[in-house]
C-alpha cells in the first residue's frame, strides 16, 4: 500500500490536527508522501520498513517527540528533520549510514536524548560511541546505553527520557499535581473525621456494655436475694412442722399418763370395795 493511502486509512476520518500518533510501518514508498504540516499535533510517528531512500519533503512537526525510521535505506539528508525541534527519540537502525558526517545535522535537534544506529555501518568505526557522544553533547542514550554503558529503562528509551518541556504541557502537569495534592489533603481530613466518629462509637459501645454488665449484676443479686428468702421460708416451714409434731407427741404422752392415772385410781377403789 502506498504511504498516502495508508495515512488516509490511519486517520479514520479525523482531522489532521487531531492526530497525535501515526503508524505507517510496512507501507511502500521511497520518499515522504501525504504527510504535511497540518499534522501539527503529531507526537509519535513510525515509518519502519517502508523503503525510504530520502527524507526530502519531511514536514515541520513542532510537537513530534518520537520518530521511528528503522530498516529503510536512508544514507543522508538528516537535516530535513530540523523542523522537529522537540524530537527526543530517533531510531535509524538498519539504515545505510556509513560514517559520522550525516550525523552532524542532528546537532540542530537540541532535545534529542536517545539515538539508535544499531545495524548501521557507522557502528563499526573506531571509537564509535565516544565520537557520537562528543558530536551530540545533549545525547543521553546511544543504542540503548548511556556513556557508562548503563542500559536505558524502557520508559526512558521509548519516551525520550520523558522530560517535560516549557509550555502548555508542563503547566497542565503542574496543575494536575496541585489538584492531586488538594484531593489527597481532603481525603486525609475525611479519613481523620471518620476515625474520630469511629472512636466516639467505640466509646459509646463501651459505655453501653458497662451499663449492661451493671444491670446483669443487679439482676443476679436480686435473684440471689430471692433465692435466700425462699430458703429461709422453707427452713421456717420445716421448723414449724417439726415443732407441731413434737407438740402432738407430748400431748399424746400426757393423755396416756392421765389414762394410766385414772386406771390406777379406779383399781384402788375396786380393791377397797372388795376388802
From TrEMBL:
One Gene Ontology term, aspect cellular component: nucleus
SUPFAM superfamilies the record matches: L domain-like
Record flagged with keyword Transmembrane helix: no
Pfam families: LRR_9
Biased composition (Acidic residues): 148-218, 229-261
Swiss-Prot/TrEMBL keywords: Leucine-rich repeat, Repeat
Keyword Repeat applies: yes
Gene Ontology MF term list: histone binding
Region of interest: Disordered: 148-275
Bias (Basic and acidic residues): 262-275
PROSITE patterns given in the database record: LRR (PS51450)
Family according to the record: Belongs to the ANP32 family.
Cross-referenced PANTHER family: ACIDIC LEUCINE-RICH NUCLEAR PHOSPHOPROTEIN 32, ACIDIC LEUCINE-RICH NUCLEAR PHOSPHOPROTEIN 32 FAMILY MEMBER A
Designated name of the protein: Acidic leucine-rich nuclear phosphoprotein 32 family member A
